[in-house]
Write a structure and sequence with these properties.
Strand content: under 5%
Distance between the termini: 20 Å
Number of helices: 3
Shape: rod-shaped
Structural class: mainly alpha
Radius of gyration: 26 Å
Order of helices and strands: HHH
Helix content: over 70%
Length: 124
């Protein structure tokens, strides 16, 4: 009977550890996804600014000044910076998922808590 309770205790501890690890992973990924949304909004805003400035130059018959316009060049650089940030955030998400795969030796969606595994084994 003591072995049974030891197994139950171990399954509960394993389940707790799995849940804590998974919660941390989900939090990191969620935070990165929120940052991605924010970065995409900044890119959209910069693109809008860029289009607006280019229209002004075209409308004023100054299209030849587009490549020399400080506002346009600055906005283009902002967009490039934001795109680099997107790449960094996407890499961060991939790293978190890869770390989980490495730790489990499996893909994250294939991993199930030890408590569930114990139940499956006990049932067969």
């Amino acid at each position: 009977m003591s072995k049974f309770w030891d197994d139950v205790k171990e399954a509960i501890v394993d389940g707790y550890i799995y849940a804590a690890d998974k919660a941390e992973e989900v939090t990191q990924i969620g935070r990165a996804k929120v940052d991605i949304l924010s970065t995409n909004r900044r890119i959209a805003s910069a693109m809008s600014d860029l289009g607006g400035r280019m229209f002004e130059l075209f409308d004023d018959d100054k299209a030849s000044e587009i490549l020399d316009d400080a506002n346009i060049l600055g906005t283009i650089e902002r967009i490039r910076d934001e795109r680099r940030e997107l790449d960094r955030l996407r890499a961060e998400i991939a790293e978190v998922k890869a770390a989980r795969e490495d730790a489990a030796g499996e893909k994250p969606e294939d991993v199930k808590p030890a408590a569930a595994a114990s139940t499956d084994e006990a049932g067969s």
